[in-house]
Amino acid sequence: MKFKSQLLSILFALPVTLHATDLNTFASGSLIGKAIQVFVDKTGTQNIEGIQNLDKSSFEVSKLDTLNFGHTPYTYWLKFDFSNSFNHSITRLLEIEYNNIDEVEFFEPEYTESKISIQRFESYTAGMQYPFQIRNINHRNFLYLIEIGPNENKTYYIKTKTMGGLILPIYLWEEKEYNSFDSLRLQGLGFYFGIMFVMIIYNFFIFISVREISYLYYIGYIFGLSGIQLVLTGIGFQNFWPKHTWFQQNAYVIFSTVCMSMSLLFAKSFLNIKIISKRLNFLINFLVYLNILILISIFLFPRSITIIAGIFISVPSVITAIFCGVFSYLSHYRPARYYLLAFSMLILSGLVMIMKFLNLIDSNFFSDYGLFLGSCMEVILLSFALASRINTIKKEKEEAQAKSLEMQKILTESYARFVPRDFLSNLGKDSILDVRLGDQIQKDMAVLFSDIRSFTTLSEKMTPAENFNFINSYLSRMSPIIQRNKGFIDKFIGDAIMALFDKSVIDAVRAGIEMHIYLIEYNSYRKNREYDPIDIGVGIHTGSLMLGTIGAEERLEGTVISDTVNLASRIENLTKVYGSKIAVSEATIDAVKSAGAFSYRFLDRVKVKGKETPVSIYEILDADEPNLKSAKLDTIIDYDKAVTLFHMHELKESKEFFNQVILKNPNDKASQLYLKRIFGLQNPVTISSEDTFMAGE
Fold it and tell me: pTM of the prediction?
């Protein structure tokens, strides 16, 4: 049985070990791990001559695309049997993408003139224990040139040994394609380190501004994280410390302990762990001290110990940082949400990297580049965490001042019952306490005037107490309608309402319509209590007005000064003359036309008191009862013709069209008014001049 198993093993290995791999079968940029034979030199005493004399069975064929030996004290020899089936020479670049290896020695074969057997090898030595300048190709990764002539076979060897994790992602490239790929990779690394540098500078200025210690810890954290990446990518060894081999060999432990310590201190400060949990605070302090001890230990102990200790202490440090975020979030600390989002991606990518070093997972895109992606995502998300932290600090300060501000708040709310908040907002004031005599602003607004019809007659039937109860009952029902339509009441003038709308003219028109619609329900309520029904008129005009304060230092009053206000009041008075519920100016109707939201018709051009130029006024039909609105819309063509002919002084033709309107809609008061005016104009002897212009006043 044992012999049978050995035989199957030999038969399985023969196709790989006895035949060279044709270079032409590899696409540029291919991982060639499965074409590599590996010998483990546990004593570390073998040389190239001894390796050549080994039996082929001493080498084991790799089953992985990326060789990953984890943490190992052994020396590994890699054997490459390459052939070229073409009739021309082939040149390829062999790249070992992982550069944190203590020693890498590449053996290139030299042939005799007869090309029958290998006589000797040319060797190239590199690695972290040698200065960077001795490399045969000046590159952060290990690069070697593979040249094979036509129909030629060559065997190459690589000797590797390191104190840390030994990972060997080996690629074959065409030189042109590699240069293009490496250029893009360098651009990506430049973008990454640029973000890290910007974040250090950005947080440094925040620290200078707010003097918050958590930002200083965060700067140290980014510095440590950036240092780790400088080590892992080889950029640090190539560009910053090429002659300092001791530092390169220990840089990972140095930067990782700085990164872990600062991340824990940042979590402690940022998440208020000292206040939230004494046990977590103790654990963080303990882990920080351990990281500091490991940092000191690099001067006292062999690297084989400090590297393993540094990697293993990073695991509980990372887990603790995550748990702090979760615990703080469960304690309802608002910034913890952003902290978890920002650090979860980075921490998870860091764990993947550590698991790769421990040989728990294979090398892949996420294990190789995940830390870069996680770092970038962290930078973006942590900006929200920092903003949330600043807001939290601000909130804490506000809460500390809450008692002293409580009376001011009560006072402000009391004044708000007399001075609308929107009035203050338009003046650019946060509080009534900020208002000063002479504060003013000029802007375009819609002004709504509302008045109860025949209020004097109605009030004479009531006692003073009943008058006030009635007015308050009416106004308390109409005020919410105005507020709901984004307006605010500037004044109560007895039974009249003056409201301002600074967002949209349509809001004012809609408010007027809703006031009339609600009036039906209110009159039903009054009827049930045997009160007389009421009717109201609404006038709306749009234009520029001045909003401000008048009076004296000891007695101020907010008011609105403008011809726009006066005209809105005059238009409201005209609703009594034309029998309309809502009358608006031409400036208002232009907005209604644009919105296409309401039905309307032209009423007249009148010369109101205080203005020399006649003003066009219109009637909004949506406030009428449904049957009356329908009748007005059915007769609007005849009505418009009649009004046009009237203003062209074609009185006879105008009268005929008005008669048609009255025939279909006897309750059309505007048409009735026009017929009276036509009669007066056609029979001037029977009516006084004073009565002739009553409609226009």
Answer: 0.54
